[in-house]
Amino acid sequence: MIALTLPEIRRLLVALVLTTSHGIDHIWAWSHWRRRRQLQARLSHYRRRGHPLD
Length: 54
What we know:
Elements: H1 6-18, H2 24-48
Helix pairs in contact: 1-2
């Protein structure tokens, strides 16, 4: 999974402080899912172009 980026941290803070429609567990689960999908996309991008992934 990729590390937390500044925009992701900002989005999490806004979601945790300003939003009351979703629970904290939902917000963290969504962030985890998003970063996992970003890693999958990054690996797919490099794999498609023939870069070694070690």
